[in-house]
């Protein structure tokens, strides 16, 4: 698809641009567009290029996080500072590794999408953003040796093609223990591994593991009458990393990535409250072009289930299903 657009773009070039390529035959120019070698700048006018990514705007990233992510003051701050600082560091010592933890529907996948869209125009569909889903790509424990080899080859090949590659691993809590350790050399403090530098790559892990520990902290603050915004990273991060490391049902169980301190940030996603669900519903209404109807907002939010059973503080599905519930009220 992208190569086809590139060729079409060359054929539709303005005369002044066509004249600029006259010293070489049109056929050779077309080949150059196809390969990206003869006219890389011209090629990148019509296709996404690793070397010509958009510059990361701190303001744009912050706006996306503020407008689209609710109830996650810790995640917002960590993601903004970590990603912006890493991308603007011309010589990072190692790849950026972020491990996002929390219940379903709290915003982990959404944040990985926001990061990808702020770095590459194609977002999650970019050729330089790679998504692995544990249950889809690594389903069988008996094939773990094969998966390790394939994973190393895939990462090595893609980082060789684009140093700024982004790798997202979803469902880490369902990944077979030991598999993720195959990428440990790529995440370490090495200038080169078999002639390839991984220092500008980014690795993002998404997991439900550790969500219980995050909830315990959030609930303790709520029961003490404290604001959730008063929760600091130091209140959660260490206990979260230990919980994930010792969780036998997690892909990080006794992982060398944690043992060797190769995860830069354990990012906690707090369970969402009633008010946060209403924020999600309003944004979804706006995205569909509807005027915000506070009566419908309240009715949809009240249909959700909450825990603990007696106190009903946190949504047990976050914002994950509010979008489908909204369909009931706008069934044309």
UniProtKB/TrEMBL annotation:
GO cellular component: cytoplasmic vesicle membrane; endoplasmic reticulum lumen; endoplasmic reticulum membrane; growth cone; nuclear envelope; nuclear membrane; synaptic vesicle
GO biological process: cell adhesion; ERAD pathway; intermediate filament cytoskeleton organization; neuron projection development; nuclear membrane organization; positive regulation of synaptic vesicle endocytosis; protein deneddylation; protein localization to nucleus
Record field: catalytic activity: ATP + H2O = ADP + phosphate + H(+)
Residue ranges of every copy of the Torsin-1A C-terminal domain listed in the record: 272-329
Subcellular location: Cell projection, Growth cone; Cytoplasmic vesicle membrane; Endoplasmic reticulum lumen; Nucleus membrane
Family: Belongs to the ClpA/ClpB family. Torsin subfamily.
Subunit structure: Homohexamer. Interacts with TOR1B; the interaction may be specific of neural tissues. Interacts (ATP-bound) with TOR1AIP1 and TOR1AIP2; the interactions induce ATPase activity. Interacts with KLHL14; preferentially when ATP-free. Interacts with KLC1 (via TPR repeats); the interaction associates TOR1A with the kinesin oligomeric complex. Interacts with COPS4; the interaction associates TOR1A with the CSN complex. Interacts with SNAPIN; the interaction is direct and associates SNAPIN with the CSN complex. Interacts with STON2.
Record-given protein name: Torsin
Originating organism: Gorilla gorilla gorilla
């Amino acid at each position: 698809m992208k190569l086809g657009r590139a060729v079409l773009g060359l054929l539709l070039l303005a005369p002044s641009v066509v004249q600029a390529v006259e010293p070489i035959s049109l056929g050779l120019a077309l080949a150059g567009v196809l390969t990206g070698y003869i006219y890389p700048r011209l090629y990148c006018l019509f296709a996404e290029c690793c070397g010509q990514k958009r510059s990361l705007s701190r303001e744009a990233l912050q706006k996306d996080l503020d407008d689209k992510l609710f109830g996650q003051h810790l995640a917002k701050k960590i993601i903004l500072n970590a990603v912006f600082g890493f991308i603007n560091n011309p010589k990072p010592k190692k790849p950026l590794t972020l491990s996002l933890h929390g219940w379903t529907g709290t915003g982990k996948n959404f944040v990985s999408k926001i990061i990808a869209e702020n770095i590459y125009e194609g977002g999650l569909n970019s050729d330089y953003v790679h998504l692995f889903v544990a249950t889809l790509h690594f389903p069988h424990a008996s094939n773990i040796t094969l998966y390790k080899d394939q994973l190393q080859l895939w990462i090595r090949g893609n980082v060789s093609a684009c140093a700024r590659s982004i790798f997202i691993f979803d469902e880490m809590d369902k990944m077979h223990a030991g598999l993720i350790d195959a990428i440990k050399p790529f995440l370490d403090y090495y200038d080169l591994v078999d002639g390839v530098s991984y220092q500008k790559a980014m690795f993002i892990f998404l997991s439900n593991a550790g969500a219980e520990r995050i909830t315990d902290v959030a609930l303790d603050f709520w029961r003490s009458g404290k604001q959730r915004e008063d929760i600091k990273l130091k209140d959660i991060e260490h206990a979260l990393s230990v919980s994930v490391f010792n969780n036998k049902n997690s892909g990080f169980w006794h992982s060398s990535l944690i043992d060797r301190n190769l995860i830069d940030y354990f990012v906690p996603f707090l369970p969402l409250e009633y008010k946060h669900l209403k924020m999600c519903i309003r944004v979804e209404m706006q995205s569909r072009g509807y005027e915000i109807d506070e009566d419908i907002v309240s009715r949809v939010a009240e249909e959700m289930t909450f825990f603990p059973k007696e106190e009903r503080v946190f949504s047990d599905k976050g914002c994950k299903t509010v979008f489908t519930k909204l369909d009931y009220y706008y069934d044309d």
